[in-house]
Fold this protein.
Amino acid sequence: MAKNYYFENFENSGEQNLVEDLVIESIKIYGMDVWYIPRTLVAKDDILNEDDLSTFDNAYMVEMYVKSVDGFEGEGDFLSKFGLQIRDSITMTIAQKTYDLEIGSREASVRPLEGDLIYLPLNNKIFDIQHVEHESIFYQMGSLQTYDLRAELFEYSGERFNTGQKFIDDEFVNVDLFVPSADVTYNVTYSAGNFYLKDTSETFGATVKTPIIELEIGRKYIFDQSETTNTGNTLSIYDASDFNISNIEIPGIVKTGTPGTDGKTTLSATTQGNTSGNYYYRTTNGTTFGTVVLVKSKLDNVETYDSLADNNTIDDFINNDTPSVASDNIIDFSQSNPFGEDTF
């Protein structure tokens, strides 16, 4: 027996549009503005189904409703064998029409995707979308109006942020403990008594006038002076800004070619053998200079950059200043399988 055709509860487009408008208005009243950050895949591994080089190039402000009204969900804060872990999670609701208009019209994805991020202004944290539920309200009046986005606190692992929103792009600038193996090249131009630098890693997105630059000890940096304006203005790195006969170029510098000529004319500095502190890149007469801050490798000096790290403390303890007894103070190597049952 068919349903009563006088009552169109699931096929009335007018009623569906009304419910959708009410949902959007409710989110605008009771929700908040957050930033939706789509992920761009760069080098997806089709076997492991992951991308270690993901970038985040855009951010869109949209209104969402915080469904987790009683606080963050998940396992919370706890200590594990890997140290302190924070497993806060949150559920956010966004109207499907809002997504289509504000994000879908500018991105290739037709719905929110797992792996996209949400910046929550309440605690200035970024959350990673783990699952998108599109049937949280089951076919109200025969249609779907919302997405529920279940997200966990984002664990940064070297992803690149170029959204144009400084508070997002700089969120992890001080916690990047990875030391890239590639050389860094600074393209140098000279004008009106000033050096202008632009680097290929886009630390300086545009050519910047005599910027303060940070060089890591042991890493190779190339200052390319092949542009014609550099003629007669050889750049080098010294221990003082003003010219003095006692000024010394820092060790590890190799110069090739002539500034201002075509081709790869460079000054390469590995900064090996130098101590951390302030130095200066300048011309030989000291009339033009900029500050160089020489720092120790972040990878080898984790505790300097991360107050919670104990890498060096543990390393000193297990080595006991005697390499031959390394690790004996902490790990019992008589166990062939210390994390499981022994097998014989």
User: Anything to note?
Assistant: The chain has a mean pLDDT of 79. The chain has two domains: 13-169, 184-295. Residues 13-30 form the longest helix (18 residues). The radius of gyration is 28 Å.
